[in-house]
């Protein structure tokens, strides 16, 4: 499976031997750590990245318009749901996606191409056009519309996530973005809004340079123009966890977490500034090339955001994860967005050097519930997790859903002890699947297929080259337009190309 996971410094594990070199040369350490760490109004209004301080004293007017979406009026628990894991709905409308428990308040449905192509009313969500990897059949968007509608009626808001690690590797995804087509897809399917998961070149290491700051600022600003808060559209972003802490390249002298205050904040010396694999020190959070990357973006477009669900994972071994919440909370109090602290079902792909245990999840949720050092109690901040389908590699039956169930209980006032004792009570929830108006056009269901691929349906054509189908315990993809009743295996020179065997 291709990697869609975000990594701030995923190459650091393979470069662990270089840390002795870091200790000998600060300049060399800065250079190598930069390599490791994974619409603008006018050019003059884009904050510049560089070794400078961006002071809050210049903030004069901040639009604190409240979003009309009612899902933001309670603590948020967000889970990423990879589209490639979703199979076709059963006839009663059930799937792993539509039966998610209500421990999840918001789903980031991942990932669509930032430069997706979509014609309003077509319901064509083929991977070639949108990047989504579910319901690959003619008008498969009708099935997705039904699924999203079911979750909406069950009180769960689904947000379209754009980008991820994979889709930012091609330059056209940065520049060839049609915001109207994104909105058209959001409206047709019934998404609650969008999440900009911006990982330039597949990591966060370059996210704080001037060009990428300008890109993300433009993405947020142009989206907001078409999808206003007054209409209830949610605009979110999922940046690096250290993005609001002052760094060497992006800083804010007015912030309690400015780069110059790093030793006071952590109580640690610079001897550990680049020791990201040391599990006893947290000052390394100030040492990544991506540290501070979100400061100029927030100052340019923070008032246009509803949620920052920062990725506080794949960020080394630093034990004090609360620093990341507090640093973002400082800006959340100024600009009015909500926060979701990103966690990860063990094990993290980079390292792992830090384990997000159930106890950690509960304690973190309690800290957020109480408001942290920036007094945000009652602001409805919460927890995000990658991803809902992952099973803990630690020999437990905890999944992303279990973690969010614990978090939601604590965020809503339960004790950490009670929440952990009832971590699995969501399994007693019997989802009631509504029937109207979730399936207004009765889209054809070709069956559940196998290996996450929809079964071949002889009644429909397959116009999009590269569409995969499940047939006779094998996976095929079409080489060109396929008419109805052109079965795989019927002709070795026909339109279907064998991909792999699939026993399930």
From TrEMBL:
Q: Which SUPFAM superfamilies is this protein grouped with?
A: (Trans)glycosidases (SSF51445), Carbohydrate binding domain (SSF51055)
Q: Tell me, what is one Gene Ontology molecular-function annotation carried by this entry?
A: hydrolase activity, hydrolyzing O-glycosyl compounds
Q: Name one GO cellular component term.
A: extracellular region
Query: What transmembrane ranges does the database entry give?
Result: none
For this UniProt record, give its keywords in alphabetical order, as a comma-separated list.
Hydrolase
GO annotation terms (biological process): carbohydrate metabolic process
Q: Coiled-coil segments, which residues?
A: none
Q: PROSITE patterns given for it?
A: GH18_2
What's this protein's name? Contig128, whole genome shotgun sequence
User: Which species is this UniProt entry from?
Assistant: Pedobacter lusitanus
């Amino acid at each position: 499976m291709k990697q869609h996971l975000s990594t701030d410094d995923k190459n650091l594990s393979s470069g662990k031997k270089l840390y002795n070199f870091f200790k000998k040369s600060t300049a060399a350490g800065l250079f190598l750590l930069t390599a490791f760490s994974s619409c603008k109004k006018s050019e003059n209004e884009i904050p510049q990245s560089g070794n400078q301080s961006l002071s809050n004293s210049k903030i004069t007017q901040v639009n604190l318009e409240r979003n009309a979406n009612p899902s933001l009026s309670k603590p948020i628990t967000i889970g990423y749901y990879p589209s490639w894991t979703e199979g076709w709905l059963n006839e009663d409308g059930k799937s792993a996606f539509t039966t998610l428990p209500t421990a999840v308040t918001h789903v980031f449905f991942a990932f669509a191409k930032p430069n997706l192509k979509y014609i309003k009313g077509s319901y064509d969500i083929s991977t070639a056009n949108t990047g989504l990897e579910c319901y690959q059949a003619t008008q498969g968007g009708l099935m997705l519309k039904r699924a999203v509608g079911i979750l909406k009626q069950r009180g769960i808001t689904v947000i379209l996530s754009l980008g991820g690690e994979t889709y930012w590797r091609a330059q056209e995804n940065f520049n060839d973005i049609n915001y109207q087509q994104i909105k058209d897809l959001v409206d047709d399917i019934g998404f609650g809004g969008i999440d900009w998961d911006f990982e330039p070149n597949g990591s966060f290491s370059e996210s704080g340079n001037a060009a990428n700051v300008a890109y993300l600022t433009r993405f947020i600003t142009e989206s907001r123009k078409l999808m206003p808060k007054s209409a209830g559209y949610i605009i979110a972003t999922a940046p690096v966890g250290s993005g609001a802490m002052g760094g060497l390249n992006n800083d804010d002298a007015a912030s309690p977490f400015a780069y110059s205050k790093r030793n006071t904040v952590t109580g640690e010396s610079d001897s550990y500034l680049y020791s990201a694999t040391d599990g006893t020190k947290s000052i390394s959070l100030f040492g990544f090339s991506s540290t501070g990357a979100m400061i100029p973006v927030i100052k340019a477009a923070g008032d246009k955001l509803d949620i920052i669900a920062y990725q506080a994972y794949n960020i080394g071994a630093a034990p004090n994860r609360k620093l990341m919440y507090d640093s973002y909370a400082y800006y959340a109090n100024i600009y009015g967005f909500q926060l979701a602290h990103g966690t990860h079902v063990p094990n993290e792909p980079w390292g792992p050097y830090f384990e997000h245990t159930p106890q950690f999840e509960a304690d973190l949720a309690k800290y957020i519930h109480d408001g942290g050092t920036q007094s945000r109690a009652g602001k409805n901040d919460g927890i995000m997790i990658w991803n809902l389908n992952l099973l803990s590699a630690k020999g437990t039956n905890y999944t992303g859903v279990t973690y969010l169930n614990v978090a939601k209980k604590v965020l809503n006032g339960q004790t950490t002890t009670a929440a952990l004792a009832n971590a699995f009570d969501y399994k007693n929830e019997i989802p009631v699947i509504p029937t109207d108006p979730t399936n207004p056009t009765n889209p054809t269901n070709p069956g559940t297929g196998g290996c996450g691929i929809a079964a071949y349906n002889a009644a429909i054509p397959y116009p999009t080259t590269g569409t995969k189908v499940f047939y006779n315990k094998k996976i095929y993809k079409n080489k060109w337009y396929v008419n109805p009743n052109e079965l795989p295996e019927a002709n070795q020179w026909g339109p279907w190309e064998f991909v792999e065997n699939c026993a399930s």
